[in-house]
Design a protein that fits this description.
By secondary structure, the chain is an alpha+beta fold. 21% of the residues lie in helices and 37% in strands. It has a nine-stranded antiparallel beta sheet. It has an eight-stranded antiparallel beta sheet with strand order 11-12-13-14-20-19-16-15, with helices on one face. It comes from Thermoanaerobacterium aotearoense SCUT27.
Length: 414
């Protein structure tokens, strides 16, 4: 009889334990750590806003500034000049108004940044820049030098110009010797759509490898930073060596090579009203939770409206870094935010180390363009493409209608 009672009590205890475990699991608060009421913005947008590249053009010759220090210096001086522009008008131009002969400084912003983020970063209160449309994308700033110097903001469909009274700083960039740069010239034969011939000075190609996550301690640290209640989080180790963490609402997968995938199935409240600046603040907050210093990344793309936004970021290295994912080349960091909640993210955690130089140098860019019959080239730059382990040097070519990535080692399209 006593054995039957013990068995019954044991079954009752186990059943009760299972019931409470299930209740705890299913009734876990459906509120993300990143879905909180609107709070003052804590991130200084000027820390994560910088050009993706800067190219100095002088009568058909180009200098692609590849040193991160030089790019940041150009941007610092540019922002100083932008803040000083007061008593001048903002005019709208057409593409035909642009005379493409002469000296220019091209400041590129990847896929584009919105005008409100630029205004916030510059902390403008009185400037003709404020008259640019609130949702306008700025993909490039063209500093046009000569008799009538101007700064032109464009997304390649609209052009806004401001007269530049003092262009001495930008003039000093013409023929300047930078710490590191890629110099090339373009000779166009025939009409504007004719074949482009490039001449590029040889330079060493450095080899970099990503360390990824070298020990399990990193997994634990990231998980504790991301989840509210770590006690209900399950850990699943996959055969590939990656780890999955979930609390039933959110999921986090960490790969050995540093790839991080995150999603949140929480239903967001329509009562929360987060603007683009606040949403960017949440995205950067999430990046910091992953152990990435926000001063080591910069914004390269913005999409969305009405509380739903996605942001792309790159790393502040000497060359932009892209990631090869499922055959597509993407920015290394993407974060999607919905009314203050981080809904999804794909992040390549970069901890790279120098591993020597490639033997043989780069594949000739002129031959490459001829082999692939690429015409109408606007500019070419050196980037690195992360293949899951190594950073492969690549030519990033932009034409009037397309953009391409070619391996700088063998000339093949990536």
């Amino acid at each position: 009889m006593k054995e039957h009672v013990k068995t019954a009590v044991l079954i009752l205890l186990v059943s009760t334990s299972l019931y409470f475990s299930y209740t705890l699991w299913t009734s876990f608060p459906q509120k993300s750590f990143f879905m909180t009421k609107s709070t003052p913005v804590s991130v200084d947008i000027s820390d994560i806003l910088r050009p993706s590249s800067v190219i100095v053009e002088s009568n058909g010759t180009f200098v692609d500034i590849t040193s991160s220090n030089d790019i940041n210096s150009v941007w610092m001086n540019t922002t100083k000049l932008l803040k000083e522009i007061k008593d001048t008008a903002l005019s709208q131009l057409s593409k035909n108004d642009l005379n493409r002969k002469g000296d220019f400084v091209h400041i590129y912003f990847g896929k584009g940044i919105t005008d409100d983020l630029l205004k916030n970063a510059l902390k403008l209160s009185d400037s003709p820049i404020l008259k640019i449309g609130q949702d306008s994308l700025i993909k490039e700033m063209i500093i046009k030098l000569g008799a009538k110097p101007q700064i032109i903001f464009t997304d390649y469909s609209s052009y806004y110009a401001i007269d530049l009274k003092d262009s001495s700083y930008f003039l000093s960039l013409i023929n300047k010797q930078f710490q590191s740069s890629m110099n090339y010239s373009i000779t166009t034969t025939g009409d504007v759509y004719g074949e482009n011939t490039f001449t590029v000075k040889s330079f060493p190609l450095k080899r970099y490898v990503n360390r990824g996550f070298e020990n399990d301690t990193v997994y634990r640290t990231i998980t504790k930073n991301v989840f509210v209640n770590i006690s209900v989080v399950r850990e699943i180790k996959e055969n590939s060596g990656s780890y999955i963490y979930t609390d039933g609402v959110r999921g986090l997968r960490l790969y050995k090579n540093g790839l991080i995938e995150y999603f949140d199935t929480t239903t967001t409240s329509s009562k929360l009203t987060f603007g683009r600046v606040e949403s960017l603040d949440k995205a950067v907050e999430f990046i910091k939770a992953l152990g990435i210093d926000e001063k080591n990344v910069y914004l390269t793309g913005v999409n969305g409206s009405s509380g739903d936004y996605s942001f792309a970021f790159n790393y502040d290295y000497d060359y932009p870094v892209y990631a090869l994912r499922n055959g597509d080349i993407k920015e290394p960091i993407y974060v999607s935010v919905s009314n203050g909640t981080i809904k999804s993210a794909i992040v390549n955690y970069m901890d790279i180390y120098y591993a020597g130089e490639y033997n043989g140098g780069f594949y000739d860019i002129g031959k490459l363009l001829k082999d692939h019959k690429v015409d109408g080239v606007q500019f070419v730059s050196m980037v690195y493409v992360f293949d899951g382990n190594e950073l492969i040097p690549a030519w990033h070519v932009k034409t009037q209608t397309n953009e391409y990535f070619f391996s700088a080692l063998d000339g093949k399209i990536m």
